[in-house]
Amino acid sequence: MTKKVCLITGGGRGIGAAVAREMAARGYALVLMSPSDNCETLAAELGGVARRGVTQSADDLRAIVDLALATYGRVDAVLNHTGHPPKGDLLEITDENWDLANDLIVKSVVRMSRLVTPVMEAQGSGSIVNVTTYAALEPSLWFPASCVYRAGVQAFARLYADRYGPKGIRMNCLAPGFTDSLDVAKYGELAALKRIARVEEQAKAAAFLLTEDSSYVTGQTLVVDGGVTRSI
């Protein structure tokens, strides 16, 4: 296998699909996972492989890594991407939904790291990127559980960078602002650029972190929000 391999969760649509297209254009073989058959359709188009699954399932994460290794024998880059957990008023969010948010956002990153780190250690290199949110830096009551747990992922990335940097493995976070993968055009005025992002713009930023273009960057959060958090 001469091509490098990129594994993407949430890779069926939106930012995940845009990253898949960008990484394919850069010559990476793809392994995609999403809850629907969108990942299978996109993988077929881009010459990769796919399996349906959800990030909160440890079994699904193991299965997608097993598929990558069975197909290509290596994993060079991982994009940990998942949807938003349930929303609600801060103290009205149930314990069950806080637990779901933890499974979706934090534990999925920890579990994926356990699976791919030994592979990357054996290879002597690897890059993991976690999609978080600009609101992990400037928390918003619009989506409190997402803010809390994605901030935790950013802290985990710093710890991981310390622990596995000597092994040649990097971990960073991409913190998107309002992007056209969702119906959020009305929030464009919050950005200094006075518009929302295109998924292709988020994909190029993710690809920078996933590839050797960012070979001396680790433990960082790259905020791509058009200047929403410019004052922080």
Set out the fold topology:
Elements: E1 5-9, H1 14-25, E2 29-34, H2 38-46, E3 49-52, H3 58-72, E4 77-80, H4 95-123, E5 126-131, H5 144-164, E6 169-176, H6 199-210, E7 221-224
Parallel strand pairs: 1-2, 1-4, 2-3, 4-5, 5-6, 6-7
Descriptive notes:
This protein has 232 residues and is an alpha/beta fold. It contains 6 helices and 7 strands; from the N terminus they run βαβαβαβαβαβαβ. The chain has a 7-stranded parallel sheet with strand order 3-2-1-4-5-6-7, sandwiched between helices. β6, α6 and β7 form a beta-alpha-beta unit. α1 packs across α6, α3 packs parallel to α4 and α4 runs parallel beside α5. The chain is globular and about 45 Å long. The N and C termini lie far apart (44 Å). The mean pLDDT is 97.
Distance from first to last alpha carbon: 44 Å
Main sheet properties: 7 strands, parallel
Strand order of the largest sheet: 3-2-1-4-5-6-7
Low-confidence stretches: none
Category by helix and strand content: alpha/beta
Shape: globular
Counted beta strands:
7
Secondary-structure element string: EHEHEHEHEHEHE
What is the percentage of strand-forming residues? 15-25%
Radius of gyration: 17 Å
Helix segment tally: 6
Helix content: 40-55%
- How much is the average pLDDT? 97
Q: From the structure provided, what is the oligomeric state, counting identical versus distinct chains?
A: single chain
Summarize the structure.
The protein has 232 residues and is of the alpha/beta class. The protein has 6 helices and 7 strands.
Search tags:
232 residues, alpha/beta, seven-stranded parallel β-sheet, 42% helix, 16% strand, globular
